[in-house]
Design a protein that fits this description.
about 40% helix; alpha+beta; five-stranded mixed sheet
């Protein structure tokens, strides 16, 4: 996971968003797994004027050509990213990720540093608005580590 939900799961005090962002590995095996998951969820492309979304090709070949998908299903809205501003590669992101408990499920989330870097690189107004919160949070964590906490 990456984005606001991942940050909130690590106690960054930012406002929640309406969707969850997943950063997916573009390797073939993962694309095949993702195809099965999207089929199970009956995921559809999210569009503003159609609550039920639009059906799309969920094949590994199609997914492998995407940079990002905005999706919806009966459980809610979510995005799948294969590329993100400020993130060089999935492997590095995965190596720096943390395991957190979300409800009763252990989940891998991008580090707060990586999420902040992505928001900084994207430069969107909505990202820049929360970037100061990220930076304050990170400074607080640096201070805690410096005091041996």
């Amino acid at each position: 996971m990456i984005g606001a939900f991942a940050a909130i799961a690590q106690d960054v005090p930012i406002p929640p968003t309406m969707d969850i962002d997943f950063y997916a590995s573009p390797d073939q095996l993962n694309l095949e797994r993702l195809t099965k998951a999207l089929e199970f969820l009956d995921a559809k492309i999210r569009v503003s004027d159609l609550d039920e979304g639009i059906a799309f090709d969920r094949s590994p070949a199609f997914l492998g050509r995407m940079q990002m998908l905005n999706l919806t299903c009966e459980f809610g809205e979510f995005d799948i990213l294969f590329e993100a501003a400020g993130i060089k590669d999935f492997q590095g992101l995965e190596e720096r990720s943390l395991s957190v408990l979300v409800g009763r499920t252990e989940t891998q989330v991008a580090s707060v540093e990586d999420i902040a870097q992505s928001k900084r690189a994207a430069g969107r107004i909505k990202d820049l608005k929360v970037l100061q919160i990220f930076e304050k949070f990170l400074r607080g964590n640096e201070n805690d580590r410096g005091l041996g906490r």
